[in-house]
Amino acid sequence: MQAVLNITAPIFFIIFLGYVSVRYRLIPKEMLPGLSRFVLYVALPALIFIKVSSMPIDQLFYPAYLIIYGVGSICALFTGVLISRYVFKDTLGVSGVRGMGSALSNSSFIGFPILLQFFDHAPTQAFAMTVMIENILILPIALIFVEYAFGRSEQASIKAQWQGILKRVSTNPIIISVFAGVFFSVLGLSLPAFMDVGLNLLASGAAAAALIVIGGSLVGVSIKGSYSRIGSVSLAKLVIHPLWVLVLIQFFPSMPNDLKMAAILFAAMPMFSIYPILGGEYGQREFCASALLVTTLFSFISVSALIHIYS
Questions:
Q1: Taking a C-beta distance cutoff of 8 angstroms, is the pair 207, 112 a contact?
Q2: Helix (H) or strand (E) holding 188
Q3: pLDDT mean across residues, the chain
């Protein structure tokens, strides 16, 4: 168990430091959006580019992983929708928002730092594939489902919706860094030494800065709404999502063990940090913020248990 805590405790300790720093104004909360943008637009892309560009192209994409994580996430999405719709009798639109929280992981800010801690040589290609699946497949499906459920399709054409999604994906700096890394890998290119050293310096701060943002973002968030509904979304995200992935892994026994474990770990992460922002578009901001808080707190236990089982 000590070995497990050596992996998870540092992650959640930094999250706690982020919370304390913002709670007592050592870091003004107004700085969090800027720090978050630094992580998403500079530090994480630098880290991903360095890792991906140094890999042989045949190691970057593993079709079985894409199928497992993609199908598992879609199953988790609609499991969350069905629980909300038929157990709690929520509207279809609200159920869609609940399903979104059940299927989209915080792979960048929490998942990747844990991946770096868990593996001696982290399978960065797993993170790259996870980010692509989440942004190119799962998030668009979830948003389109919710839009139609709330009847907004009457106000916006299908073409306009897809244009918005395409713009969101094509301007995502993490997606851009993945494809830039693939481009360099395919052509065998390398950066000048001063740029390589500079990007490595930026990359070294990515994980810690991301965790500080997560902790600081929890300041001021309180639990509001039905505890049973919040609990069901947390359970779907932390337990049902990785269970779907685990079931699908059984159909691909030859997939490398590190990729299997990476897929389960990413699925077991709490929901993505912009969940309250997206939920706020449909009148669900308070619920989504509460679910994010509860799921993030309980993920320390669930992720530690998962690592203990598979260590």
A1: yes
A2: none
A3: 85
Tokens 């994409």 belong to residue: 61
Burial of 242 (0-12, 13-18, 19+ CB in 10 A): buried
- Answer yes or no: are the C-beta atoms of 204 and 74 closer than 8 Å: no
b/e burial code for range 51-60 (CB count within 10 A of at least 16 → b): bbbebeeeeb
pTM value? 0.81
Q: List helix spans (H) across the chain.
A: 2-23, 32-38, 44-53, 63-82, 92-103, 112-118, 124-133, 139-149, 158-170, 173-187, 193-204, 206-217, 227-235, 241-249, 257-267, 275-280, 285-310
- pLDDT the model gives residue 1: 60
Q: Set out the domains of the chain in order of their start, with CATH numbers.
A: 1-310 (1.20.1530.20)
Instruction: List, in order, residues 6 or more apart from 205 with CB less than 8 Å away.
Output: 43
Question: What digits encode the pLDDT tens for the residues 71-119?
Answer: 999 999 999 999 999 999 999 989 999 999 999 998 888 888 888 888 8
What DSSP letter does each residue of 49-60 carry, written as one string? HHHHHTS-GGGT
Helix axes 63-82, 92-103, angle to 10 degrees: 140
Tokens describing residue 231? 């609990």
Cβ atoms of 41 and 212 within 8 Å: the answer is no
* Tokens of residue 229, six digits: 């509904």
160: region left, alpha or beta (phi > 0 left; psi from -120 to 50 alpha): alpha
Q: What is the DSSP code (8-state) at residue 272?
A: P
User: From CA 91, how far away is CA 97, in angstroms rounded?
Assistant: 10
